[in-house]
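FAQ

Q: What does a record look like?
A: Structure on top, sequence underneath. For example:
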């Protein structure tokens, strides 16, 4: 698998979308977690893939071992990483079924493992722009070529879950400038940056956030993800097909010593 330099992380509702022709189990040093990495064709393009919540959707968002997922892909030689996230709309101009490619994020999670750098030397990475601009641009272009409604800029706020947010929390997030809310974008994006990976997210707007509709159900979220699943896979395939061999971004530049994946 080491000759494939790109990968996707798929979220809820995409377990059945992946038809791997090869899988490998990677042992990681994080809570003895083993990660299943699949080799599959997405819209005819060969890629590596990880199901964020596990192959049976056994891990809720606050229990996902994000470090293990990112680390396993880095170990296999991945340099570019595309994620799929399902979100609720805070910005009222967005509608269910829309797509967005965030350009910034706000982290309101509480109890997750946020870094690979828990020991000396103390290391800080630049996170001014949390998403790779090169990959973001490719995702937006691919979605538009396929005739999809896609917002090319948005701020993603991540909450702990697994409960949905209160109406008061959503009002607060709106005041802070958030456009969409989800439960899985953090610390995933930061961990990718710490390992020098290019990372961008394609978000499916599945519902209006709390207080903007009568109530929110998991069924509603999964139904929209199912409707958009084929389209999202086509966008991923088109994006991967157009990724240039050489990176023109600065995602791989780190401050301090490099984290060693061995």
């Amino acid at each position: 698998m080491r000759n494939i330099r790109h990968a996707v992380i798929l979220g809820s509702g995409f377990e059945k979308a992946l038809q791997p022709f090869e899988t490998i189990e990677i042992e990681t040093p994080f809570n003895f977690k083993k990660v299943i990495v699949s080799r599959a064709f997405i819209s005819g393009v060969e890629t590596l893939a990880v199901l964020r919540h596990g192959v049976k959707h056994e891990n809720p968002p606050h229990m996902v071992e994000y470090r293990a997922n990112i680390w396993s892909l880095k170990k296999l030689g991945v340099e570019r990483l595309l994620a799929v996230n399902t979100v609720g709309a805070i910005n009222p101009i967005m509608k269910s079924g829309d797509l967005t490619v965030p350009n910034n994020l706000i982290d309101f999670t509480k109890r997750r493992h946020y870094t690979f750098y828990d020991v000396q030397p103390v290391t800080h990475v630049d996170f001014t722009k949390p998403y790779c601009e090169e990959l973001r641009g490719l995702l937006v272009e691919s979605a538009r070529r396929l005739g999809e409604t896609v917002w090319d800029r948005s701020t993603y706020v991540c909450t702990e879950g697994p409960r949905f947010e209160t109406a008061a929390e959503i009002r607060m997030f709106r005041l802070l400038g958030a456009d969409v809310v989800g439960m899985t974008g953090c610390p995933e994006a930061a961990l990718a940056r710490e390992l020098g990976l290019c990372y961008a997210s394609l978000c499916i707007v599945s519902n209006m956030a709390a207080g903007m509709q009568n109530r929110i159900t998991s069924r509603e979220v999964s139904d929209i993800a199912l409707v958009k699943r084929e389209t999202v896979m086509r966008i991923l395939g088109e994006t991967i097909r157009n990724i240039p061999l050489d990176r023109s971004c600065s995602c791989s530049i780190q401050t301090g010593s490099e984290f060693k994946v061995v």
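Q: Is there anything notable about this one?
A: The mean pLDDT is 91.
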